[in-house]
Write a structure and sequence with these properties.
alpha+beta, Heat Shock Protein 90, five-stranded antiparallel beta sheet, 25% strand
Length: 153
């Protein structure tokens, strides 16, 4: 089922930020707030943080050539068995779900310092969905997450 149908409700939380690397600290603080508010397991929070940092860094670095101004909107839904996160940006078109990953280097000498972000996101997110609309890119990440347990009082 496409992400659009799963997200018929208002997001549980969202953040809007300028496409600027200095704003990554705001993103980190937002994710930590989500962790507390929605009682997310630490291992899930680490996966979400890694994916969002990689993706937002890529959008900022490649989506806005020559330092053009841009805006990112990140929405979060806590659903019974999953977390849904949508990243909307008005940058250059890029579909990370269709990006062909380069081969892994055979030796340490062949390794470069970058180029592994999309591989990490594909590994740590349970699913990725991409749409290009009139207003820009929309990337949806899905993370399986057990339903919240309510402790007896």
């Amino acid at each position: 089922m496409p992400a659009q149908r799963r997200m018929a409700t208002e997001p549980s939380s969202q953040i809007v930020m300028r496409a600027n690397l200095e704003r990554l600290v705001d993103l980190e603080l937002w994710v930590e707030k989500l962790a507390v508010e929605f009682l997310l397991p630490r291992s899930l929070v680490q996966r979400i943080e890694l994916c969002l940092t990689e993706l937002v860094t890529n959008v900022i670095g490649y989506g806005y050539p020559d330092g053009a101004d841009g805006t990112l909107s990140i929405r979060f839904w806590r659903q019974p068995e999953q977390i849904v996160i949508c990243i909307d940006d008005d940058g250059a078109p890029f579909d990370p779900t269709r990006y062909v990953l380069p081969d892994l280097p055979g030796t340490l000498a062949e390794a470069s310092s970058g180029g592994r972000g999309i591989r990490l996101v594909r590994h740590f997110a349970d699913a990725l969905e991409y749409l290009r609309g009139a207003s820009g890119n929309q990337l949806t990440l899905l993370f399986r997450c057990p339903a919240q347990q309510v402790s007896p009082q």
